[in-house]
Write the structure tokens for this entry.
Amino acid sequence: IGDPTSSRASPAAPGRPEDRWSPVQTDRVVSELEFALVGADPDPIVVAAHLRYDVHDPFAVCVSFDAGAADRIEWTFARELLERGLWQPAGEGDVHVSPKGARLVLSLCSPSGRAILETSRGPVAEFVTRTQRLVPAGHEAAFIDLDRELAALLS
């Protein structure tokens, strides 16, 4: 579900005659999903989650898991990792994504433990497609506001 709150401009698709700036209808993509927490128990635990993408951080996606009450657990990682993981095992370090038939496996590792979660690949693929409509792959750098990032670093 997009949030049409921005009138930010974005570059037109490269290689087209209308290579000019055009308005973007939104600056975020959010999808609500359910993940199954895979463990030793034969009945997986279902965990509600949000996948989020913001053009102001064009290289990253965030997945936020409902951890009960008002708590949420958030992981931020490369959009490219999520995209590659739809089709082949991808990831190094703490985050790994891989296809498993019609499912997608997300493996997260932190000092406090490891979680293996599964969800349907279709909604994740649609999420990635929607993010690429906002910021085409390979054009992320054009969406970085260097002045804003520098001000944030210096504040």
Remarks:
- DSSP finds three helices and nine strands in the chain.
- The CA atoms of residues 63 and 155 lie 27 Å apart.
- The two ends are 33 Å apart (CA to CA).
